[in-house]
Design a protein that fits this description.
With 844 residues, this protein is mainly beta. The chain is 7% helix and 44% strand. It contains six helices and 52 strands. Strands 1, 4, 5, 7, 8 and 10 form a six-stranded antiparallel beta sheet that branches. Strand 44 (665-669) and strand 45 form a beta hairpin. The longest helix is centred in the N-terminal third of the chain and has 15 residues, at 3-17.
C-alpha cells in the first residue's frame, strides 16, 4: 500500500476514535452520510436489471447467507435444521401500477408437505399469498421463475420466508432466491428524483452497469428526492446513468454532491465526472463537507449524450464513497420558449402551416424527436410540478364540417393529472392514467364556420404523480382549405372604406399578423381580423403596414382593435407616416383591454402609410397576449347629403336636411355613397330626413333603399305631404321605389326609420341612395310620349302604349312615365292616340 493511502487510513481511524459529534456533518445530506446504507440482506445477490428494492431479515437468529452457482448469485434462507422456525426477508414498500410485474427466481429442497417456502405480497393492509410450496425442485440447477402482477394501483411489500414444522428435515432443507427485478417502476421513480420539476422531459438510460444510481429521500429543501451512486465500497467499479437529448441552444444545469477519496494533484482515484459528447465538463473528488453544488454548461443545438458517472479504483474507501445528482434541467432563453415549436405540423397545403404557441406562466411545451429526425412530437413541460398547467395552442379558421385530428400519449396519475383538449374554451376530450402508454387519435369536427382557438393542456393537481408524468401530442392535421394565410387584403378592410389597401406583414414565425375569424365589438357577427403572431414570445414585435398612397386633407381613418396583454408592458401602437415621416405615434393600449374603436383625421394632403405594431417586453405574458385589427376604413372627406343622394341621372337635384338626436348621415361602400339612419339600437327613437321640391304632374321621384330591422316592429317609412307611401320592416335587402306626382305643386318628402321600445334585430338600419327625378315622364333629350326612350316620338311608341293599354304587354315604370302624356298616372288608349298624333305631326 502506498504512503498516501496508508496516511488516509490512519487519519480515518483517528477520526473514528475521536467520536466526532454530529455537528461536524451539519452540511451533510440526510440519509447519505457514511453507514447510512447498512442492509441486512445483500442486494447484490438478489437484484438485477436495476432493481432498487432493499430487504430486511425476518429472523436475526437465522440471517440469510449468499452464494453463487455459475453466473447466478442468490440469497439462501438458513433456518434449515431448526424445527418450528420461520426465517427469510421482506422488502421495502413501493408503489406499483395495476399491471406492473415483479419477477424472481427460486430454488427449494424441503420436506414435502411439512416445510414450506412462501411468497407473500402485502397491499391495502392485507396479505395476499402468491406461492406456498414444499418438496424439491429436482436438482441443483433447476430454478423456477415467479411473476407477480399488481392487481391495482397501491403500495406493495413483499416477503419471502421458509417455515419449518416441529420434526424431520429433508434434502438441503433450505430455499434460495435470485434475480429479483421490476419491469418499469424504477425508471419512473429515478426520473422523478433527479429531474427539476417543470424544466424538461429527459430520456434517461438508467440501465448501464451493475451498480446503477438509485433513489434517496431526505428532509432537505430542494432535495427531497435525488439519485445516489450504487457502487459505494465496491472496488474497481462504476455507477452511471445517461441522457441522450436533442436540444436547441440552451444551458444544462444540475446539482451534485460528492463524498469520496480525494484526488492528489491531477491524479484521481474515486471521483464523480460528467461528460457531454465525450468531453468532460465536471470532474470532482473529495468534498469533505458533502454539500450540494450547482453546475451549468451551455449546449448548442443538436443531439447530445450526457453521462453522469461515479468511478472507483481498486482500493481505499473514504467518506460516504458516493456521488449524488439532483435537479437536472435545460434552461432555454425566454425568447426561445415558443420557437421550440418549430413548424412541426402542416395544413392541407405546404404553404400553410399550423403554428403553435406556449403561454408563459403555464410551464409551456417542448419538442422532442428521435435520432434520425423521426417521431416528432410535443411534450408537456410541467413534469412533477404540483398545481400546474402546461399549455400549447394554435389558431385555425375552419368551415363547418372540417376536421382537426391529432395523436396523443398520456402517462399520469389517473383522474387527477390529465391531458385536456379545448376548442374555444370548451372541453372536447380528456385522457388520464399511467398504465396505457400507447398512441391514440382524436378528431374534432367544426360545428360551424369560424375561427377556433385550440388548446392542449396537461393539468397537474397538488398531490401525487404516477408513471412518466407527461403528455405527448403529434401529427396535428387540419383537413380543410379555409382562410389561413398571411394575405390580409380584402379581409380586414370595411366595405365603407373608399380606398383599397394592400397590407404587408412579416412572414417569419413569431412576427407579423395573420388572419383569424373572430367577433368585434361593433359587429357581433364573425369577421376576419389580423391577429399578432408573436404571442408569448418575449422581446419581439409584430408589424403590419398598409401604403394608402395620395390622400386629401380631411381623410378619416377608422378601425376596431383588440388588446389583451401584460399591462403597461406589451403594447399595441398605431403609426401614420406622411411622405415618409412619422406624424402619428399613438399607443392604443395594453392590459385586459378588449375591443375598442379608433379614428383620426388627416390634416393635410400627402402620401400616407399606416403601421400597426404589437411589441412585447422581456418580462412575461398575460391573458391572450395578442392584438387584433379589423374593420379598417380609409375614407376620403364625406360629401353632403345632397351630393351623396342625388343621382347622376336626376333631372332635378333635391336639397336634403336631417336634424335631431339621430340624424341621417352619409356613408359609403367603396366609391358609392348613401344616407343612413343613426338610431340603431336605441329604443323608442326615430331618425328622419326631409326635402321639399316642386313637381309637375307626371314627374317621377325614385330611390333605392336597404333595410335590415326587426320584422313588424322597427319600420322604414316614406311620406309625401304626410301621406305614408312606404311602410316596410324586416330583412328586405335593397328595394327600388318610384312615385309619380299626380299634379303640379310643391311636395314635402320625408324618409324615416322608427324603432319600438324593445328588441333589435339585424343591422337595425335603413340606407337611402340614388334619388332621381324624371321630369314629366321624360328623359334627357326626349319629349312626352317617347315610350321606348330613344329620343324620338314615333309610331312605335304609340303601338307600345296601345298594346299596354289592351293588356298585351306590360311597360316598365319608366316607360309608363314617358307614355302617360295626360298625367293621370296610367297609360291608356287616350295616351296612345295622343302619341300617334304627335308622331304624325298633327300636334306638337
Amino acid at each position: 500500500m502506498n504512503k498516501r493511502k496508508l496516511l488516509a487510513l490512519l487519519l480515518a481511524a483517528l477520526m473514528t476514535l475521536a467520536v466526532l459529534p454530529a455537528a461536524v456533518f451539519a452540511k451533510s445530506l440526510p440519509e447519505v452520510h457514511k453507514d447510512a446504507e447498512v442492509q441486512n440482506v445483500n442486494t447484490n445477490y438478489l437484484n438485477i436489471n436495476g432493481c432498487l428494492l432493499t430487504y430486511t431479515e425476518l429472523n436475526s437468529t437465522y440471517p440469510c447467507s449468499t452464494g453463487t452457482q455459475g453466473d447466478r448469485k442468490y440469497v439462501e434462507i438458513t433456518n434449515g435444521g431448526h424445527a418450528s422456525t420461520t426465517a427469510g426477508f421482506t422488502s421495502t414498500s413501493l408503489m406499483m401500477a395495476a399491471g406492473d410485474k415483479l419477477y424472481f427466481d427460486y430454488w427449494y429442497s424441503t420436506e414435502l408437505n411439512y416445510d414450506y417456502f412462501t411468497f407473500t405480497a402485502t397491499y391495502n393492509n392485507a396479505d395476499h399469498q402468491e406461492e406456498h410450496i414444499s418438496g424439491s425442485t429436482g436438482g441443483d440447477d433447476v430454478w423456477f421463475t415467479h411473476t407477480f402482477i399488481a392487481p391495482e394501483n397501491a403500495w406493495y411489500t413483499f416477503t419471502w420466508d421458509y417455515t419449518k414444522d416441529g420434526s424431520g428435515n429433508t434434502g438441503s432443507d433450505c430455499v434460495r432466491v435470485s434475480n429479483v427485478y421490476l419491469d418499469v417502476h424504477w425508471n419512473y421513480q429515478r426520473a422523478e428524483a433527479v429531474t427539476k420539476p417543470g424544466t424538461g422531459l429527459f430520456e434517461y438510460d438508467f440501465a448501464s452497469g451493475n451498480y446503477p444510481f438509485y433513489t434517496k429521500t431526505s428532509d432537505a429543501p430542494y432535495h427531497e428526492a435525488y439519485l445516489r451512486s450504487g457502487n459505494n465500497n465496491v472496488a474497481s467499479s462504476y455507477s452511471q446513468f445517461a441522457i441522450y437529448e436533442h436540444t436547441r441552444d440552451c444551458t444544462l444545469s444540475f446539482d451534485y454532491a460528492v463524498s469520496c477519496e480525494a484526488a492528489s494533484g491531477s491524479n484521481y482515484y474515486d471521483y464523480f465526472e460528467v461528460t457531454v459528447d465525450g468531453v468532460s465538463i465536471l470532474k470532482v473528488a473529495g468534498s469533505d463537507d458533502f454539500s450540494w453544488y450547482r453546475c451549468s454548461h451551455d449546449l448548442s443545438q443538436g443531439w447530445h449524450l450526457i453521462v453522469f458517472k461515479y468511478t472507483k479504483d481498486s482500493s481505499v474507501n473514504v467518506g460516504s464513497d458516493c456521488a449524488c445528482v439532483d435537479n437536472i434541467t435545460l434552461d432555454y432563453p425566454s425568447s426561445e420558449a415558443a420557437s421550440r415549436w418549430f413548424d412541426i405540423n402542416y395544413l392541407g397545403s405546404s404553404s400553410n402551416k399550423i403554428y403553435f404557441t406556449t403561454p408563459a406562466g403555464t410551464a409551456g411545451w417542448g419538442t422532442k424527436i428521435d435520432e434520425g429526425g423521426g417521431n416528432l412530437r410535443g411534450y408537456s413541460n410541467n413534469r412533477y410540478l404540483d398545481d400546474s398547467n402546461s399549455v400549447c395552442e394554435t389558431l385555425i379558421n375552419m368551415q363547418q364540417g372540417e376536421t382537426l385530428s391529432f395523436s396523443y400519449v398520456v402517462s399520469s396519475e389517473s383522474t387527477y393529472d390529465k391531458l385536456v383538449f379545448y376548442a374555444n374554451g370548451a372541453e372536447q376530450m380528456r385522457a388520464s392514467g399511467w398504465t396505457d402508454r400507447a398512441w391514440h387519435t382524436y378528431t374534432f369536427t367544426a360545428p360551424e364556420t369560424g375561427g377556433y382557438r385550440f388548446e392542449w393542456k396537461y393539468i397537474k393537481d397538488g398531490t401525487a404523480w404516477k408513471g412518466w408524468d407527461y403528455a405527448y401530442i403529434r401529427s396535428v392535421t387540419y383537413s380543410g382549405s379555409y382562410h389561413q394565410s398571411l394575405n390580409l387584403d380584402n379581409r380586414i378592410v370595411s366595405s365603407q372604406s373608399t380606398e383599397q389597401l394592400h397590407f404587408e406583414t412579416d412572414p417569419t414565425y413569431g412576427h407579423g399578423f395573420q388572419i383569424f375569424q373572430t367577433s368585434s365589438a361593433k359587429d357581433s357577427e364573425d369577421v376576419f381580423a389580423a391577429i399578432s403572431r408573436n404571442r408569448y414570445m418575449e422581446s419581439t414585435t409584430a408589424t403590419m403596414s398598409a401604403n394608402a398612397g395620395s390622400l386629401p386633407a380631411g381623410t378619416m381613418i377608422y378601425f376596431d382593435y383588440y388588446v389583451s396583454s401584460e399591462a403597461d408592458c406589451d403594447v399595441l401602437t398605431f403609426k401614420v407616416k406622411k411622405n415618409g415621416s412619422t406624424i402619428i405615434n399613438q399607443e392604443l393600449g395594453s392590459g385586459d383591454y378588449g375591443w375598442h374603436y379608433y379614428e383620426t383625421t388627416l390634416s393635410a394632403a400627402g402620401n400616407y402609410e399606416f403601421i400597426w405594431e404589437y411589441s412585447k417586453d422581456v418580462n412575461g405574458d398575460w391573458d391572450d397576449d395578442c392584438a387584433m385589427i379589423t374593420n379598417v376604413i380609409v375614407q376620403r372627406p364625406m360629401p353632403s347629403l345632397d351630393d351623396a343622394l342625388n343621382s347622376d341621372e336626376t333631372q332635378q337635384s333635391l336639397h336634403f336636411t336631417s336634424t335631431g338626436t339621430y340624424p341621417f348621415e352619409v356613408g359609403c361602400s367603396g366609391s358609392s355613397y348613401y344616407a343612413y339612419s343613426t338610431n340603431g339600437g336605441v329604443a323608442s327613437s326615430s331618425s328622419t330626413m326631409n326635402s321639399t321640391a316642386t313637381f309637375q304632374a307626371g314627374d317621377t321621384l325614385s330611390f333605392y333603399y336597404y333595410l335590415d330591422s326587426e320584422s313588424n316592429y322597427d319600420w322604414f317609412n316614406f311620406y309625401v305631404n304626410d301621406q305614408r307611401l312606404v311602410h316596410d320592416s324586416g330583412e328586405v335587402g335593397i328595394q327600388l321605389y318610384t312615385w309619380t306626382a299626380p299634379s303640379n305643386g310643391t311636395y314635402n318628402l320625408r324618409w324615416e326609420y322608427t324603432k319600438d321600445s324593445s328588441t333589435n334585430s339585424g343591422e337595425d338600419i335603413v340606407r337611402v341612395m340614388e334619388v332621381k327625378v324624371v321630369k314629366n315622364g321624360g328623359t334627357p333629350g326626349s319629349g312626352n310620349g317617347d315610350v321606348d326612350g330613344n329620343g324620338t316620338v314615333n309610331v312605335t311608341d304609340a303601338v307600345m302604349a296601345l298594346r299596354h293599354a289592351m293588356g298585351i304587354i306590360t311597360l316598365t315604370s319608366e316607360q309608363i312615365h314617358r307614355g302617360d302624356v295626360d298625367g293621370n298616372g296610367i297609360v291608356n288608349v287616350t295616351d296612345a292616340i295622343t302619341i300617334l298624333r304627335k308622331a304624325m305631326g298633327i300636334i306638337p
